[in-house]
Amino acid sequence: MARSIMDAWLQLSFFGKVHESSPIIEAMSQVLAHMWLDLKMKSGSDFEKKLGEFFQHQIEESYYGLEDGTENPVLKVYDVQKLHYEGPFKLSRNAVLKHGLRKTLDHIRTTGNFPPVD
To answer: Which InterPro entries match (predicted)?
Structure first.
């Protein structure tokens, strides 16, 4: 649910700048959902913390593919090698860790792509 909320917010924020099926939207929604879960787990019960850890693990290990399990052809447009080896979540999280959330979102909004993380 957290990822879906973040996805909707990002699509509104990037309307006209980044295609709605872009792996960038998916990856950043994962990062924002992960951050939101961190915040919620700080004040939650033991059960909520364990559930939050489970969902964070799911986000960290996810692969951006189609629902039927096939690879999404939209990834061909971006740095496929980096997305393949690092994964969308790790790539976007590294951008946020290096540049901060606001600068990363601003860069995506103006360029339609992640800021450099190397």
So the answer is: DA1-like
pLDDT in tens, 58-76: 888 765 444 444 554 444 4
**Which pairs with CB-CB distance under 8 Å and at least 24 residues apart come from 78-81?**
78/23, 78/24, 78/113
Helix (H) or strand (E) holding 32: helix 23-42
Task: Answer yes or no: is 117 within a domain.
Answer: no
User: Does 116 map to a domain?
Assistant: no
Return d(Cα 85, Cα 70) in angstroms, integer. Answer: 17
Residue 67 lies in a domain: yes
Number of domains the chain is built from: 1
The pTM (predicted TM-score) of the whole model is 0.71
